[in-house]
Design brief:
This is FA complementation group B. It comes from Callithrix jacchus (White-tufted-ear marmoset). The protein has 856 residues and is of the alpha+beta class. The chain has twelve helices and 43 strands. A hairpin with a 5-residue loop joins strand 23 and strand 24 (318-323). Helix 11 runs antiparallel to helix 12. The protein is elongated and about 130 Å long.
Amino acid sequence: MTSKQAMSSNEQERLLCYNGEVLVFQLSNGKFADKEPTKTPILHVRRMVFDRGTKVFVQKSTGFFTMKEENSDLKIMCCDYVSDFRTGINLPYIVIQNSKKNNVFEYFLLILHSTNKFEMRLSFELGYEIKDDLRVLNGPLILWRHVKTFLFISSQTSKIISVLGNLSSIQWAGEIENLGMVLLGLKECYLSEEECTQEPSKSDYAIWNTKFCVYCLESQEVISDTYIIPPAYSSVVTCIHICTAEIINNQLRISLTALTRKNQLISFQNGTPKSVCQLPFGDPCAVQLMDSGGGNLFFIVSFRSNNACAVRKDNFQVAAKWEKVSLVLIDDFIGSGTEQVLLLFKDALNSDYLTSFKITDLRNINYSSEPSDCNEDDIFEDEQDNRYLVVPPLESGLKVGFSSLRELQQHLLLKEKIISKSYKALINLVQGKDDNTSSAKEECLVPFCGEEENSVRILDEKLSDSFQDSEQVVEKIWYRVMDDSLIVGVKTTSSLKLSLKDATLSLLMDQAHGSGFRLLKCQNRVIKLSTRPFPAPYLMPCETGLEAKRVKLTPDSKKEESFVCEHPSKKECVQIITAITSLSPLLAFNKFCCTVLLQIMEKESANCPKNHYVVCGRVVLSLEDLSTGKYLLTFPKKKPTEHMEDLFALLAAFHKSCFQITSPGYALNSMKLWLLEHMKCEVIKEFPEVYFCKRPGNFYGTLFTWKQRTPFEGILKVCSRNQTVMFQCLHNLIRILPINYSLKNLKSGSENFLINNMAFNLEKELGTLSSLSSAIANHESNFVQRCELSKGKSSVIVDTLSDRREEIHPCRKKLQREKKKMLQTNLKVFRRGLEVHHWLSWISSLLTADLWISQL
């Protein structure tokens, strides 16, 4: 970045670009605004921003700093922005030199904050004047050259330190990641005696006696002298711009661009020249990189002849050139999100730099201070400029969005791949197959939560314990097709006690070409059917003891979808677990196979459930099987039902309803007559509680169960194809019911739960009230004894101490008051006890009837 000094003798001016603003530093002898000049020098700063509407730079804010040195010879050395080690934020700085007497020179480094306040960050004195090679690096750190030695001072140490690398010149200084602050320059090389047998020429000596190297300020040693610039170019390179720098295999690899004395711009990649551009002007002095967006990169080269040019990075061709340029600045001056170059031209009639300028990104953005006539073409160009200002940010936003989308897609693909491999490994383990995952793939797997290698062995042991043999649990597997549903059922052993919350039946469909398995969406049901007929509960003898009446309720009580309720004394039943899935998506395959997997959850403790997996078998179905009706439900009209799997399929797929029927005045003896004669039902031989309806029409296939709990009350369960058939059955039923009947819709399995719960609560209340009654009776007997004892003692005291009545009269009154108060209290308790006795007798009569009902 280049800056120039103004022509005025008593005023110096430097310009700097920072965050899209142009900072104008002016050092004057106390002249500020309309005030009179003073002997105290003042440093002024103005923040200028570009107004796209008026196409001029306007002043945003100002600030000043008063120098303490009076009648001093001050001079601005340089200005730029560096990173402050305290905050890591880039801030503008300015270096000022103060010439004192006796050849003593004092240097100040001031930092400008966002509030336009200056801070004295570094100051030091030298016995000589710094004339050239003054650089300010991050920290801030000031580096300069004196005679043949390079020295630096940092704000952290405030000590002057010499560079020990034997550098003859420095072409670039800056910070490289993982290396810190480094210097890139020429180092003198001393030839050995064998190499000096012949006296080299001046050109050879200039080439082979120096070489480029990278010097680290922190370690104060040369870290690399290869892969930078070939020795043949060491004598012609004048300026370097580092593009990239990284360490590969402990070697520093650098990509850079250099200016030469031959008026060339050369690109070097790891010490090898890649591209060369012949510059249009002579004596280049500085090169900067400009990113105009859309992948368009330009090298902006400044010349000492007040000229400038732009070179494309992709093809190393000159894109533009400008003459009579006094200053070149690069920043985002118009706020478009990309960089532009600001060219300040030297106007002989006006000393202000910001009156003659040009802003361009060498693509679509062009602003100039030259006056032009306003016409329709200019308005159209302004609209085009506005479009160009909007399009680059949108393009960059789209690129960021597409990049995020690609990363998300890759992440999802990786998750799907991991899940697919894990799923395949699980199925192979279930089926007892060998896992063909290669060791190379297994090495890529990273254990979660920092588990050790033995976790694999422990996991295998747990999996082997979790999987059970199907012969121990499963008796039979079957499947049927009904309408648009595939019904798969598993008959379990009688020793296995399951509920819907404890068992899950899953269907794993094999994918084509062995690529894995797909889990089908299923609806599960647990069906329990009793195999023995039971007499009516009101005809069975019941135990009258308290333990026989009590029904224990626990928080883990579950409702099972059992179509027939078991009797507690005999629990012989058939247990079926079914899975229903849609058949339509499966018809796209000519033949498909499914693995039936049963998951059983057992609670070892309250918070530690244990899962067991059972491979029940495979389901194979083809379009030929469906067309021939091989697995369709069959119920012959004139023959009894033979295949119980068809009955189980109906129970799994049909809609279930439960009704409580009560008739206070008449017995419900006509229900079985209605089922057998009116509905033409068939009693299933294997399950006598189930009635299969064979009445023609919509009623055909409907299932009923009738459980008569008392002569006047019973539970009817209807398993129908749909709600319409259920309402038709009810409409047919009410014709034969007695007068004043009551029909109540219940949730399946909820009536016993409610009755048992109420009976248990009433029994608990009865025990509490009985204990309260006995306590009151004991308290009453004790009270009578205390009263008789008190009367005996009082009579003895009156007979023996009659001559001292006047002395004990106050005590006697006090005793009578306490006795009366105690009597009133106990009488209240006694009355309450009598009321409790009456209440207990009434509750006992009600409870006797309810407990009798609960046994049903």
